[in-house]
Amino acid sequence: xxxxxxxxxxxxxxxxxxxxxxxxxxxxxxxxxxxxxxxxxxxxxxxxxxxxxxxxxxxxxxxxxxxxxxxxxxxxxxxxxxxxxxxxxxxxxxxxxxxxxxxxxxxxxxxxxxxxxxxxxxxxxxxxxxxxxxxxxxxxxxxxxxxxxxxxxxxxxxxxxxxxxxxxxxxxxxxxxxxxxxxxxxxxxxxxxxxxxxxxxxxxxxxxxxxxxxxxxxxxxxxxxxxxxxxxxxxxxxxxxxxxxxxxxxxxxxxxxxxxxxxxxxxxxxxxxxxxxxx
Amino acid sequence: xxxxxxxxxxxxxxxxxxxxxxxxxxxxxxxxxxxxxxxxxxxxxxxxxxxxxxxxxxxxxxxxxxxxxxxxxxxxxxxxxxxxxxxxxxxxxxxxxxxxxxxxxxxxxxxxxxxxxxxxxxxxxxxxxxxxxxxxxxxxxxxxxxxxxxxxxxxxxxxxxxxx
Lengths: 279, 164
Fold this sequence. Notes:
The complex is a heterodimer of chains A (279) and B (164).
Chain A: E1 7-10, H1 14-26, E2 31-34, H2 38-45, E3 53-56, E4 66-68, E5 72-76, H3 81-87, H4 91-98, H5 103-106, H6 111-116, H7 125-130, E6 134-139, E7 142-147, H8 148-151, E8 163-170, H9 171-174, E9 178-183, E10 194-201, E11 204-210, E12 217-218, H10 220-226, H11 233-240, H12 256-275
Parallel strand pairs in A: 1-3, 2-3
Antiparallel strand pairs in A: 4-5, 5-8, 6-7, 6-8, 9-10, 10-11, 11-12
Helix pairs in contact in A: 3-4, 10-11, 11-12
Chain B: E1 2-4, E2 8-14, E3 17-23, H1 29-36, E4 55-58, E5 61-64, E6 77-79, H2 89-96, H3 106-119, H4 126-133, H5 143-153, H6 155-163
């Protein structure tokens, strides 16, 4: 049971959604855009957040697209992880979605919710960081379409009243060779110890990480080292782990030291597979 | 725009029947099903989306009713164990395979497997069945019997497949 009340709005257009958001905020409350809602409900239940209004954007047609045009795969922000997986349009994204939470929750969790949530892993961001994806946002200043990595710096950098409308993934990425691995400390369904996604573009490996630091990231410095074939695989993996953008994440699941150990060995495995043509 | 503030009357389609209920926008579907409609098959467990005891089907897909607002469920078809009627294939399979001990998790498993059969009428690969089942927890550890029940539930499709 949620021990407090909030107002509920279900707009049918982007403008109505933003209006509802601004109206709620003008009354001094905290409004939240609501899609799958699992994090909003569970955090409200324990009193970690207390929104005054939730604006359910699932009825907005632009937010529920899942279509391919000539240049892009377009995924609406309220598409569920299950819908994205079942569509099988972007195999790397299918693997990322298929390892977030459990299957029933994947029928509920949305792409937008996973990217905007407070849980630090945001694993759907990895394929987007690797594929030069763009994102369409909508807020009080209207619509803007920008590179995904310009508004995702470990977490979404949205201005007040802004929401994700859809993501645009270039066609080349849908058929590029890829690799995905998620390692957990105990159960298969758990937060990641480390989660790694990679795409090969041309003869160059692009790689992104979740669980390693307290935010997901793609590092071009690490990619440069991993692609330096003048060095041994072992040296490349060793050097890569010295180039993390922040302190290694440490929590009840694992010490930072153990995460680094797992990361180095997993990078070795990925590099071996790549060099043996098994990606 | 649909809008609810404070207590409101909404209509829910549960087990093929329309029900009018008075809800707060922050009421979860689990609480409304149990406390207002008396449909207690969906069980409160962790209330956090982890255990699966509250699983129901919404438009044929499994949903954890502790993580869904009642106001969002309008316009959707909600199915609980009460709506399976007692002789559904999955229920019969659970009885035949003795796939429960204390039974608290059973309705969640029944609904997730009913949804599996709705979405995948022919038995999917073992790994896919495993993925669906991993959404639910049984603390009496009847897992092997539950796996047997899945096979029994799909028995008719397996024999159809063998005959093809």
